[in-house]
From TrEMBL:
One Pfam family per UniProt: Rhodanese
Signal peptide coordinates: 1-18
Gene source species: Luteolibacter arcticus
Keyword tags: Signal
Domain Rhodanese: 34-124
Stored CDD domains: RHOD
Protein name per UniProt: Rhodanese-like domain-containing protein
């Protein structure tokens, strides 16, 4: 019983942003962030990218070797980065790595799944 409570507490703690990390950005806020100059980073796989992605996004798969170096090469460190994946798990990990590298990063809540559910367009 204690193990179940401990694991539940651990799952909750790992799903919450750290105090110094901004909360994930809701789909409704994404377009404003983009209009304000944020860069879009898709951290899904090449196969997922081909199924549809946000217009203007750059693809740097999180699972790829050298993710951080490739992301640094693809992004302007002076502009904020809005990162997304399918539903939010990979983008949270990528956002953490990019923040630690000195980028201003926002994670899109719910990923491209939430984007599409809100009726927003994707490119193929």
């Amino acid at each position: 019983m204690k193990l179940v409570v401990l694991l539940s507490s651990l799952a909750l703690a790992t799903s919450l942003p750290a105090a110094d990390e901004p909360a994930p950005v809701k789909v409704e806020q994404v377009e404003k962030q983009l209009a304000d100059g944020a860069q879009l980073l898709d951290v899904r796989t090449q196969e997922e990218w081909k199924e549809g992605h946000l217009k203007g996004a750059k693809l740097v798969p999180l699972a790829q070797d050298g993710f951080l170096d490739k992301a640094k090469a693809a992004l302007d460190p002076k502009k904020p980065v809005l990162v997304y994946c399918k539903s939010g798990g990979r983008s949270a990990k990528a956002a953490k790595q990019l923040r630690e590298a000195g980028f201003t990063v926002y994670d899109m809540a719910g990923g491209i799944t939430a984007w599409q559910k809100a009726g927003k367009p994707v490119e193929k």
